[in-house]
Amino acid sequence: MVGSSLPGPAPAPLFTWEKRLEPSRVMAVIVPVIAVILALGVGAIFLAATGFNPLKVYQSMLYGVIGSKYGLSETVVKAIPLMLAGLGVSVAFRMLLWNIGAEGQFYMGAFGASFVALTFPNLPAYIMLPAMFVAGIAMGGLWAVLPALPKARWGVNEVITTLMLNYVAILWVDYQVYGPWKDPKGFNFPLTAPFSKAAILPTIAGTRIHLGLIFALLAAIMLTIILWRTRWGYEIRVIGESPRAARYAGIKIERNIILVMLLSGALAGLAGMSEVAGITHRLQHGISPGYGYTAIIIAWLAKLHPATIILVSFLFSGLIVGGYSVQTSGVPAATVSMLQGAILFFVLGGEILTRYRLHFGRKEGK
Amino acid sequence: MVVPLVEMRGITKVFPGVVANDGVNLSVQAGEIHALLGENGAGKSTLMSILTGLYRPDGGEIYIDGQRANFRSPRDAIAAGIGMVHQHFRLVAPFTVTENVALGLKGGLKLNLNKLAGEIAALSKEYGLQVDPQARIWQLSVGEQQRVEIIKLLYRHARVLILDEPTAVLTPQEARDLYQTLKKMAARGCAVIFITHKLQEVMDAADTITILRGGKTVATVKKSETNEKELARMMVGREILWQVNKPAPRKGDKVLEIKDLKALNDKGLPALRGINLAVYAGEILGIAGVAGNGQRELAEVIAGLRPSQGGTITVAGQELGQCDPCRVINAGVGYIPEDRLGMGLVPNLGAVDNLLLKEYRHPRWGKILLNRRAARQWARELVERFQVKMAGLDAPVKMMSGGNLQRLLLAREISTRPRLLVAVYPARGLDVGATETVHRLLLEQRAAGTAILLISEDLEELFRLADRIAVMYEGEIMGLVATEEASVEEVGLMMAGAKRMEVSA
């Protein structure tokens, strides 16, 4: 009866998956590297298809980044907001709070700092900068606490609320720079009057690298200490790993949702503050070219590790700077976004290799 | 000799660092009930996963009806007539019984559910598997759900039926019904294999027994030619002490008092309907009952994880307020939850972090900064004292075996010197050695004057440890008896809701 339908020897499958007992550490390092290479490969196909020589484009991108002092310093400059925002989202992600709102928190931080700079233009620098600092992190933090409250109270999905608040923040800043705060001498451009000298962050001589770099490095150190050396960080890690165990241990999850979102938004807000005080020296339309979204990719690629976030931020700012430098030769600006997306795609896809083992055409009956 | 229906020869399966099966032989005849006996980690589940096509063996051969079989996927195994009832049922809760049986059936797009329902009714009558084909799964008791799983296999003409610890969720009476069903299936020419580590079950139901230990076959014996003692020795590899020397209880003050406690379950239906209980220092109060009769909810309400709908809980004269785990911990209540890795421990963190889980607020670790070095030292001492075996203090605890996880959990809960210890199924899924350790630790706590509330579905365990046994059924206490005066039959009847005693708590 059933016997005759027994599966006899059949061609072995090309490959089979087998679950690993524990995630492979080797793969955790190799996968991102291969992902970047594959992403560059996909980018190359796209470039070739649109009539560019991919090798030349990549070469001039690389040259744009490391070929000159300007390129190098710009890479650092662009990395600063990415680091701060990336650190910000990472701490929320660690607690499984999907804060997609770093972009909006960045804008509100920039708005807060600009408010101080524009309203009290005559403050001396030693009061002005700390005040802008506080206003930046306060507005960024507030913007993240707004969705944290309904999340803590009723479990409202923060992905939706943080994302939607991005548009509110961007339009709010647009309203200011197109409306009440528009620089009368600005030839109708959507930007505010320049800040006074006291409201400008000090820079390294001859470059645009500003004090924000120190903020970012300190923030990374601070986060490392908080997460692995303090009682609060212990709570964050326990909640992130197992909310049920956290509740069982009497950890107040609701309070931590609010505190962690506050910290997360404050860091993104600080990124906005240092961008207006360090780079643009005024508030303007489109102050962030999507730093808050790129930060999400960075935090994810860095496995939420503060030190790694710093490194990955340089990789992504290099991509941005390299992208700028090839735009003059007609390569579309979207190429960089495409590369970023492709990297994330391949890293996420490759993660299966850390958890599963791949067997190619194994021999039967061995 | 007759050709066995299932024959596995020299099966070897190697996982990185572990040889799960090492040249295992298993031969099962049609018409017999075959028990696969062994401690956790003996390789029973791996062997059955190979037979059902989930894993591919690294070595060895499988013969079905004397014909070489090569299962590349569970689909192949099903086609060969091999079916398995897993410990955690694979049923879709909002679907009806009929729809669940229909899932995964081959055939065209058309589905004649009425015809199917008729066939299911016929099957269930034939095998004594009472279940309503139109009922939805979530409405069924665990025992009924198990019947649905068996019907699923029968409908697919499974000739080899594998059951993974089938009686873990049943009352003694339901278990007896199950044995009857299994016997009927065997009489109709099926082969039944059931995985277990309970000796009682083997003696009740099996015809032939294969014992595994450490991934190897120890022996295959006929039930008529063996006894429990011999089986236990083969399973564990040494003599085990069944008799626990339990000194008479030194009953102290009333530690836990529960009055008219009411609470809802996760579905919002009443789970506790007015519970009254008291536990005294130095005694173990056992709660017997089939899983799902409110025991979990009772433990969760005491631990402050579930709001009560009425009634009071008092620990050492202090009333616990509404749903505040922190307050309960501070009142001196230790809690060993049923779900070790899901609630009691954080799987991805190491032993130090897990031991700190309830301790980290203590000022001796520092107000803001945690003194990691001191905590590590303290953790190392606990690990040594409780003999927890692990790869390292920072290795994720999810890598540890069930017995070691439970030791770690007990180490944490006991080291805080609780007044009251609530233990829910503390030995579930543990092998004989680890169970022994857990029981010894609980009795030590009892001797030290802790009040212990022991929730268990293992009557043997309750009769061995508890001083008094209360039986829960559908959110109520059916009766409360002193262990010396209790009989298994009586407790079993109360578990099934068939008998009620006047309770004077």
Automatic annotation (TrEMBL), chain A:
Please give one Gene Ontology molecular function term for this protein.
transmembrane transporter activity
Q: What would be one Pfam family of this protein?
A: BPD_transp_2
What residue ranges are annotated as transmembrane?
26-52, 79-97, 126-146, 158-178, 209-228, 257-277, 283-302, 309-327, 333-353
Membrane topology summary: Multi-pass membrane protein
The record's listing under InterPro entries reads: ABC_transp_permease
- Mind giving the lineage of the organism this protein is from? Bacteria, Bacillati, Bacillota, Clostridia, Neomoorellales
User: Which source organism does the UniProt entry give?
Assistant: Moorella mulderi DSM 14980
Superkingdom is Bacteria
Name the chain's protein: Beta-methylgalactoside transporter inner membrane component
Q: Which UniProt keywords apply?
A: Cell membrane, Membrane, Transmembrane, Transmembrane helix
What cellular component terms from Gene Ontology apply here? plasma membrane
User: What is its subcellular localisation?
Assistant: Cell membrane
From TrEMBL, chain B:
Key words, A-Z:
ATP-binding, Cell membrane, Hydrolase, Membrane, Nucleotide-binding, Repeat, Translocase, Transport
Enzyme Commission number(s) of this protein: 3.6.3.17
**Mind listing the GO molecular function terms for this protein?**
ATP binding; ATP hydrolysis activity
> Where does the UniProt entry say this protein principally localizes?
membrane
What CDD domains does the record tag this protein with? ABC_Carb_Monos_I (cd03216), ABC_Carb_Monos_II (cd03215)
The record's annotation in SUPFAM superfamilies points to: P-loop containing nucleoside triphosphate hydrolases (SSF52540)
Q: The ABC transporter domain covers which part of the protein? A: 6-239, 256-499
The domain of life is: Bacteria
Bilayer topology term: Peripheral membrane protein
Query: What GO CC annotations are associated with the protein?
Result: plasma membrane
The reply on keyword Hydrolase is: yes
What the entry lists under Gene3D superfamilies is as follows: P-loop containing nucleotide triphosphate hydrolases (3.40.50.300)
Record localization: Cell membrane
Task: Tell me the enzyme class.
Answer: hydrolase
Name of the protein in question: Galactose/methyl galactoside import ATP-binding protein MglA
Gene from which this protein is expressed: mglA_2
